[in-house]
Amino acid sequence: MADPYGLYARLREAGPVHRIAGPDGRPAWVVTRYDDVRQALADPRLSLDKRRARPGGYQGFALPPALDANLLNMDPPDHTRIRRLVTQAFTAGRIERLREPVRRTADALLDGIAPDGRADLVAAYAAPLPIAVICELLGVPPQDRPDFRGWTDALVAPDPARPGRAKEAIGSMLGFFGRLIAHKRAEPGDDLLSALIAVRDENDGDDRLSEDELMSLAFLILFAGYENTVQLIGNATLALLRHPGQLAKLRADPARIPSAVEELVRYDGPALLAIRRFPVDDLPIGGVTVPAGETVLLSLAAAVRDPLRFPEPDRLDLDRDTAGHLALGHGIHYCLGAPLARLETEIALGALLERFPRLALDVPYSELRWRPSTRARGLLTLPVRY
């Protein structure tokens, strides 16, 4: 967990494709090199539909139909239909209108910790900021915002000591989204969820959303929008604190922050692996034939540190040409929320560096604790002083 990049470097050097035991002990194939991962991310012969999986293979965590009918489990034409519909509501203008609310939220969170001199930056800043933003986007009133962090942690990094926690989290989410959608139907607002409900209810054609698809889409936007952004903010802050020369460049010229975010997400992004895929036929990848229906895990973490694509890949370089990095995916399944994650991270870093000119780690790097997940790359805590 502390050094996935060292492991993936050894795998990448040993070969492009490896048969492994997946996170649940079931067999899977992991792909490690940039060119192979990039090609596979856009290959229609690799399906996201779990019905393509062989019995007994790794499929990821199980969700009820009301949450499982989402873009991460779909191929065209259903994926194309739903992605087109959500893109109509998830516009660049709607994202840009969040800029000022995001900055106000960031400033308010920093106001709250400023007098203390020390803080856990994950709990105090990196986690509550994206929760507030995604709730603002979906139109969730502040008083109705439950423990999203607890729910996502229960699914992404389950606690072996609490085997029933994931099931409890799923039940809580089902109840929450059911109530929220009913409320938005009765009292629509100027928010993304109201827009999606309108798309669902006012479209009588073949491309309309089913009720399960609507709820699953709301779940995915909240789940992925929160989980990926909290990791990205935390990882990016840590990377800068460990590279004072690069940090000094941003302090001297804050206008560089948007381009710096691309190198920060390449260097230590929120996802180690892309969502699992299943070949529809026996498929050659990197000189290895993967049998149809077996699980393929595309290692984003290995691909973005491939020295054949990014020279000196283990070095943080804010002047690097990051074009084509795969940290947020590639092809038709490219991260839908990438523009929002970039916006939040730019604002979060800008506000943090502006407020605390002497920000520093408050513990040795070796004492930092990482989430116990092979999928999500993120800190449990980030103790800092300022």
TrEMBL record:
Gene3D superfamilies listed in its UniProt record: Cytochrome P450 (1.10.630.10)
Provenance organism: Streptomyces flavidovirens
Name this protein carries in UniProt: Cytochrome P450
Residue stretches in coiled coil: none
Family: Belongs to the cytochrome P450 family.
